[in-house]
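so ive been stuck on this for like two days lol. basically i have the seq below and the ligand is pyridoxal-5'-phosphate, smiles is in there too. i just want the complex predicted, nothing fancy, no docking runs or whatever. if the output looks off dont worry ill sanity check it later, just need somthing to start from for the group meeting slides
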Amino acid sequence: MTVPFIDLKRFEDGFLEDWEEKVSKISKAASFIGGQEVELLENRLASVTESKFAVTCANGTDAIQLALRALDIGPSDIVLVPNMTFWATFEAVVNVGATPVTVDSETKDGGVDINAFFEAVEKFHPKAAVIAHLYGWGTGNLEKIRDYCSSENVFLIEDGAQCFGTKYQGDPIYKNALISTTSFYPAKVLGAAGDGGAVFTSDELLAKKVRQLANHGRTSHYGYGLVGWNSRLDSLQAAYLNLALEFLPQRITSRIEAIRFYKSHLSDIGIHHMSAPKPYHENGYCHVGLIADLSLKKKLETSLREQNIGFGNIYPGPMSEQECSPRYMKSHVGGNMARQICDTVINLPVFPYISEQELREVVETVKTVCEGT
Ligand SMILES: *Cc1c(COP(=O)(O)O)cnc(C)c1O
């Protein structure tokens, strides 16, 4: 049986029909930029994230760049970046002209290594730090990092591209962030019918600046108060996201059930799960990561491939080790646990409405490999 790593075609009953109807309506009105759908989406996003303001934009990478620019981060500024994240986190810092210092990550939860983080702040006095909430959860040390950054006057930007819907200490994770971002890339927790992103903040001035930057720095139609760029989310994407939001709780529940299934069936096989730290107990619905030593990992990969089961390696390499990184980085702080995560993690299929039969197939394959070693 083939089990895909991700299948985005499992739409709820009626979803595609509703979408087609929206496309037809918006097309007939030729209202492609801004308008009701975008406004409705932003209001709903603000309410779901319990942030005062939600500003939509073109993609998750732009969202980070908008947050950085709104905080006046630019040339000659140093920005801390976790070594274990998607490339966009690093890229955004370089694209605004700032200089990244990478900080090591923790093998336990994939979050930033807090001691390395403190050391990096003391050593480099960065103007800002970006942290990434990977795999559907955030770092166990989130409150400590937020408090520390605020006391040291380091602007903290939270890249929440993988944690939409995650709760931290009972609140949406974005709620108490200075500024946070997400991506609506189709494979993310809340995916669009193309690219999209958003910035969340409860600071009115920051929200205003983000909105202005994402629309050419406009003060009026042909008046410009800033040099920004065009990073608007279009009306069709907003309409799709408004439909998807209706089903988000169901989609997240389905992901959580998949993770539970893996955990309960793969608990005693001698390999390790990467899982959400305590404050997020029920979260971690983006990816399930098995930590296996190199030889076991190779065997797992071979068997999964033979059985036509999709798997991932999120991520195969740390930021500091990319071909072009040395050209842009000032330094790296901490050890190289990020490399260890990259080398040992293997991600199993998790997506909304993955069937029990599919989950069983994955579990059987993994078990057979582990029990045979
Ligand atoms: C997906 C992702 C991004 C980038 O989002 P895009 O919408 O693809 O630009 C940034 N950071 C992380 C952690 C991501 O997973």
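Residues 59-61, 85-86, 88-89, 132, 159, 161-162, 183, 185, 195, 197 surround pyridoxal-5'-phosphate (CB under 6 Å). The CA atoms of residues 49 and 172 lie 5 Å apart.
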